[in-house]
């Protein structure tokens, strides 16, 4: 990407595209019912960020209780949601930043800083949830934190990695804009 510059049409939109993928993963984590699931038969427990559902037996109905009745449930949901909202704001700002013909590198560094803040909020929610869930909610059988919880962690890791990219990109401003003379290692005799 640095070799061809950000004006190279295929490389210009890689970072906003990765942010968009992070937003999609965040939506899956927020809407998914697979934060916690029973690992073995009979499947008697299933939880999302918002509620915990269980059923007494294999053929019986699921009964759900809201996790928003617990202070830790509200805290986990709020911190993860704040991190997700910051990620969406960074996505919108990245599209604006890369759509402008002349890049504002300080603006791009600000997006990277905001991504680190989003990662902190996301990780706080992702840590509060399993710690308090496993101590406050009675679980039957063998349970595991499942696919939607994994999407939440993937979003947080993407926020951290993209934060580094957005913060380090301005260090290569001259190379990106083509203001550096090429260095040749061949000398004539």
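Q: What amino acid sequence fits the structure above?
A:
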């Amino acid at each position: 990407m640095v070799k061809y510059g950000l004006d190279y049409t295929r490389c210009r939109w890689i970072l906003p595209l990765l942010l968009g993928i992070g937003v999609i993963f965040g939506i899956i984590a927020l809407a998914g019912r697979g934060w916690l699931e029973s690992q073995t038969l009979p499947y008697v427990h299933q939880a999302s960020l918002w509620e915990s559902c269980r059923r007494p037996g294999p053929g019986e109905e699921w009964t759900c209780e809201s996790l928003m009745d617990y202070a830790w449930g509200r805290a986990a949901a709020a911190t993860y949601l704040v991190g997700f909202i910051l990620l969406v704001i960074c996505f919108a700002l990245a599209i604006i930043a890369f759509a402008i013909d002349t890049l504002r590198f300080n603006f791009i560094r600000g997006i990277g800083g905001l991504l680190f803040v989003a990662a902190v909020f996301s990780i706080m929610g992702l840590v509060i949830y399993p710690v308090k869930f496993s101590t406050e909610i009675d679980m039957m059988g063998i349970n595991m934190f499942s696919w939607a919880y994994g999407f939440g962690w993937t979003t947080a890791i993407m926020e951290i990695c993209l934060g580094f990219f957005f913060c380090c990109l301005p260090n290569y401003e001259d190379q990106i804009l083509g203001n550096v003379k090429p260095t040749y290692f061949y000398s004539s005799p």
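Q: And what stands out in the fold?
A: The helical segments are 14-31, 71-99, 105-136, 147-168, 173-177.
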